[in-house]
Amino acid sequence: MANSPRPIILPSMAALQLFSFFICSSVPDFAAALTRQYTFNIKYQNFTRLCHTRSLVTVNGQFPGPRLVAREGDRVLVTVVNHVAENITIHWHGVRQLTSGWADGPAYVTQCPIQTGQAYTYNFTITGQRGTLLWHAHLSWLRSSLYGPIIILPKLNESYPFKKPYKEIPILFGEWFNVDPEAVIAQALQTGAGPNVSDAYTINGLPGPLYNCSAKDTYKLKVKPGKTYLLRLINAALNDELFFSIANHTLTVVEADAVYVKPFDVDTLLISPGQTTNVLLKTKPHFPNATFFMLAGPYFSGQGTFDNSTTAGVLVYKHPSSNNHFPSLKPTLPPFNATAFVANFTMKFRSLASAKFPANVPQIVDRRFFFTVGLGTSPCPKNTTCQGPNNNTKFSASINNVSFVLPSLALLQSYFFGQSNGVFTSDFPQNPATPFNYTGAPPNNTMVSNGTKTVVLTFNTSVELVLQGTSILGAESHPLHLHGFNFFVVGQGFGNYDPNKDPSTFNLADPVERNTAGVPAGGWIAIRFLADNPGVWFMHCHLDIHTSWGLRMAWIVLDGPQPNQKLPPPPSDLPKC
Predict the structure, then answer these.
(1) What pLDDT is recorded for position 26?
(2) Kind of pairing, strands 478-482 and 393-399?
(3) Do 420 and 451 form a contact (C-beta atoms < 8 A)?
(4) pTM, full prediction
(5) What does the record give as the reaction this protein catalyses (predicted)?
(6) CA max distance for the chain
(7) How far apart are CA 240 and CA 300, in angstroms?
(8) 350-390 pLDDT, tens per residue?
(9) Which of 393, 391, 390, 370 is nearest to 381 (CA)?
């Protein structure tokens, strides 16, 4: 682009905010698209929560990590420098990565990890997206502390499809463990049992006053009366879908996964790991003589243990008087297993589907797939004792009964250089090999198969995928995330999907467009997407324990005929295995 400004390095939050302001306010229209450079130093930093001090793996010593701010159309360069003992990758969750699959980040899928003392620059352009996304580590359970917001502002001189808010505030939900989560998942995989659960949920890294030894670690959102605030909600928790509510305040949902939706009002919302939701909060017209709790607590539909606790922040009106000792009001969250509430809530989402922000739903389907998603078992290794669900087995998870095994070489490199032999196969089943009553009494044999199997799609294939939850080891909600694409949720229901009746109920006009959507407990969703992005794209449950157990697979999208439809060669600094 003519007169393109020199890249600006933004090493700190203060500099980021300063330069973001400078960039947003001083660059003329003809130089609107910028290159934004960040450095993410992966380092240990001590943090204390619940009277437990832990050395966390962080970006730049921050927990949660720093904001990545860009405008639609900007090029982003993030140099990740690994100063810790663990291998690292970073995933830019929800960024389309059009022809930049080398920058997507899932370990052993699009890259080998960044090893100790090494660096890698993620290079991508944000195309046709604006809103809230998140970045997080994509290797083992390291994202428990390695996460932060991605804030994509509209292009210069473009406005929101709603009234400009007075202020914008990221709200990140997370989980705190008093012990190292890497030890938790290592123990679970060794014993075959379910993992130990987190000790607290957090709002912007703080558990809040409902936990012991935590009153001082409470997030306070200070507001003025008569204003509209945009809250950028992000669920970065490892294993838990969360309800969220602010006492005596209504929230207007305006965006999901960086796609505008038809606005709707709620008192309580659900947000699953990997999902983002932008809401408008209208404050009360006058100073109320109260403070208001913001609560987040779990939605859990499965069997076994979970962290059944509640994180609290406080909404505080900046009162002109010094007397701030007002009563605190608490909202009431739904019960933890409120599946009917969840289904009703998710049905409210509709794409804006306007002339400016159309919903380009594939109307004609080239290929149809039916994938079962759920838990299963694996045999215990010889001469060991396992603590899985039954008869000396291990917990496992699968798609179409294939529990995906991550290779020791990255899939994308193997595919690009034609060296798939011994790394992956392209025979992932399009349907379950053995159909059964998916949501009824589970079959006697719950053993899964293992493999590194993929589906190959020709460029621009329109795909319809039905994701069917199973009742094996308990019907459970599964937030499924697809890398490299947004998809349209054209249908959902409980029970077994009926291919003869259910398609007549599909919404092909204004379905919600997302990158992460929940497969209902004991039910199904149908999604459609256009395979217009060449590369290897991971799809997995965003409950990390299910991913670790194998509820994951990969799509390979072949190059298209045009130069801008081909995956370029890998960058020279791509990490080696």
Answers:
(1) 38
(2) unpaired
(3) no
(4) 0.94
(5) 4 hydroquinone + O2 = 4 benzosemiquinone + 2 H2O
(6) 72
(7) 7
(8) 999 999 999 999 999 999 999 999 999 999 999 999 999 98
(9) 393
Q: Which stretch of 208-222, 324-338, 550-564 has the lowest confidence by average pLDDT?
A: 324-338
pLDDT at 7 over 70: no
Write down how long the chain is.
577
Rounded Cα distance between 385 and 392, Å, is 6
First and final C-alpha spacing in the chain = 36
How far apart CA 84 and CA 44 sit, in angstroms, is 7
Distance CA(386)–CA(48), nearest Å, equals: 34
Output Rg (C-alpha) for the chain, integer angstroms: 23
- Which of these, 277, 308, 314, 281, lies nearest to 295 by C-alpha position? 314
- Tokens representing 45 are 């930093």
Q: pLDDT-based confidence at 530, cuts 50/70/90?
A: very high
Greater pLDDT, 251 or 391: 251
Please give the single-letter amino acid code of residue 39. T
Which two tokens mark 538?
């991971």
Q: pLDDT (tens digit, 9 = 90+) per residue, 13-33?
A: 444 443 443 334 334 444 468
- Residue 567's identity, in one-letter code, is L
pLDDT at 8: 32
Between CA 318 and CA 229 the distance in angstroms is 14
Distances, alpha carbon 100 to alpha carbons 37, 104, 565, in Å: 17, 7, 11
Residue 568's CB is within 10 A of a number of other CB atoms, namely 12
Instruction: Retrieve residue 212's tokens.
Output: 């012991």
Pairing of strands 454-457, 552-557: parallel
> Taking the alpha carbons of 9, 13, 15, 16 in that order, is the dihedral positive or negative?
positive
Read off the pLDDT of each residue in 63-71 and give the average, rounded to a whole number.
98
* 34 close to 5: Cβ distance less than 8 angstroms: yes
Residue 278's beta-bridge partner residues?
A: 232, 255
